[in-house]
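Fold Annotation — chain and its backbone
Encoding — discrete vocabulary of local shapes
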Amino acid sequence: MKLVVDANIPAAELCFGHYGTLIRVPGREITSAHLQDADALIVRSITQVNDALLANSPVGFVGTCTIGTDHIDQAVLAKRDIAFASAPGCNAEAVVDYVLSSLLTLAERDGWLLSERTVGIVGAGNVGSRLQARLTAMGVATLLCDPPRAEEEGVRGFHSLDALIERCDVLCLHTPLTREGPHASYQLLNAQRIEELVPGCVVLNAGRGDCVDGLALRSRLAGKGDISAILDVWEEEPNIDAGLRDLVSLATPHIAGHSLDGKLRGTWMIQQALARHCGQPIELTFADICPPPALASLHLQHALPPEDALRLCMRAVYDVRRDHDALERQTLQHGMRKGFDDCRANYPLRREFATLNVQLSGEAIGLEGVLRGAGFSLRS
């Protein structure tokens, strides 16, 4: 059996090596020539899997080690009778870590408290629902917008996007990209809605770049300059708009979900799917491929303002400013396309908040609720 695997998928040899020959190729460089004698294709989010890529190939299984599937033409797979699997939820916790790190970083920089803001969450799937749960546990007010879920489950608990724009100080987008249908998300945050954002609003997009009208956002930031933006996803990746990149408060190269834990979880989930496809037993556990963290514990003994304590613990695990600085540095040195891709291909080791055990004693015991709510493991 021959498997073509994105070169940036971790633990691929451990998870897929026993199936046969692995050919590792950078995701953006995978072509139909690589698949002419391949039985399986394992990718991440940057490989466009379509009719042209699969032309005349014997591929019988396609797996993407990611939550998103808009880079996969599933109609083509169905027509060719190719089995398909994705990894829903694999890196959702990492994306929530990214959102909390970003918001608390911006709050510190601009002098406001997250606990005093209302956060609107657009898209209540794997990421959005986890984000709401953590923010609620931290004492932060939230409003949810998810029209497909509202239609299916009833409107109670959900609000329209326009209501969120009117009532929220922070707007977080976590929607898949759909271009057609009654709930299309393409340019969901369009020019009109961007113009209607209240002064002081923070827009964070860690869903899909095409869900926001980048030109309109750039115009609002460059013109009135009365809102802020945090962007991890962009239109036209990797050739992103340098003008917009320079105007947003935090600009990162589509890495919100790039924790080691999330990547390994995605690899492991596709390994399980391939085993089922091949009729083989599932013996490998997630613990088998996930190493211990470099920093396993942290001890807080004195009282701190809650958001200072959160930033201290978060930055012990992950500091979003590193990714913002890396994107600026790499794109200045190598150009936008190569710099953007280099940041992703050479992304440094990053673990999730839950891998850090925080020990509290003395006056710091009062921080238990907010730290546990943010996703850290607590021990006394």
Q: What stands out?
A: DSSP finds 16 helices and 14 strands in the chain.
